[in-house]
Amino acid sequence: MKVGDKLWFVPGYRKAGAGYVTVEKVGRLYLTLSNRLRADKHTLYTDYSSRCYLSKEEHDNEVAFRVALSAFRQRVSDLSEHSTDMACLKAANEALDAFGKAISSVKVDR
To answer: CA of 29: how far to CAs of 23, 57, 75, 105, 110, in Å?
Structure first.
């Protein structure tokens, strides 16, 4: 990270107000931003539960991931003993095992 870099800023306390900010100073632990907040150099979290991302696309991808994960968890929790059978559970477990093997071979930065 260097002075002049742009980061996508998302306020933690409200949805409105997101936008690009500029890094004005790079310190040992913190970045000083053009909106006068400082962000942790490694996590990019600011005071007041706000967060910066390297780009708007990175933020949008994280939001899409969280929505998809929430929907998946809801579908799993909606399963009941009466609406499924052992064959269905075995197939779902096999699919999750295959997914786990596939994802473990891909490096994901989180």
So the answer is: 13, 25, 42, 32, 19
* Look-up of token digits 């790079």: 26
- How many whole angstroms separate alpha carbon 86 and alpha carbon 77? 16
- Angle CA 103–77–75, to nearest 5: 65
Tokens coding 56: 């708007």
Q: What is the pTM of this model?
A: 0.72
Tokens of 107: 């490096």
Could you tell me the end-to-end alpha-carbon distance of the chain, in angstroms, rounded to an integer? 17
pLDDT tens sequence across 78-88: 777 667 788 88
**Separation between Cα atoms, residue 67 and residue 64, nearest integer Å:** 5
